[in-house]
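USER:
Make up one protein:

ASSISTANT:
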Amino acid sequence: MKKGYWWSVFLSLCITLGGCVSGNRHADAPEIKVFSLNVLQEATRVENGFDLTVAQIVQLEPDLVAFSEVRNYNDSDFIGRVVAALRERGLVYYGEKSFSTGIISKYPIARQEFLSPWDSNDRGSATKALVDIQGRAIAFYSLHLDARHYAAYLPRSYGSSSWKKVAARVTDIEELLKDSRESYRDEIMRVVIADANRERLQGRGIIICGDFNEPSHLDWQADTAQLRDHNGVVIDWDLSTMLHESGYLDSYR
């Protein structure tokens, strides 16, 4: 697990743990530990999944946690259940009810907001929480973006939405990007970046994380063209490129 002084950072794909040192680091910035995870249908696909999720948080004791695939089955409150379970184990976290994405924090949440161009979350969504950590104002974002048109499967001879084996692989860059842009991922990312830029102007540090359902362009360059079934593809995937061009740093680099 990495730790770092946080200012502007993004985590790409479905990330478990991450940290970053950005170019805008403040010398007196607090050290922040972040845990981002997709709980896969609210941890119902694994036996004792909820308890295992809570146990992982207890073990790591992160300052901020971002969840993807919050469902609130049977009119429940997943975030409330997690917070209560942690209190039973002696840890105090704060969180508010949310859907699709969720956040808990060791520090009180000043404000939480649902971000999406649409009223529903079936095309993906983001949750933002404003927190103050040791005197440092932070805007923390949890994203879960559209899983359809996962074009990184196409060079591997799998359908981007069916996820089933197909007859021929696709390696043409224009075709790959065209397919990827049929998803709703980029629309939400633009909303998040615009919101984060406004928060930066207010002096807040920015942490953006979650399950983007799209690879990082940094993992699809010439050095990996013949690795991991990329089959020669070198491509600048949209989401990570948008973040990079907006001044954000990948937590793993």
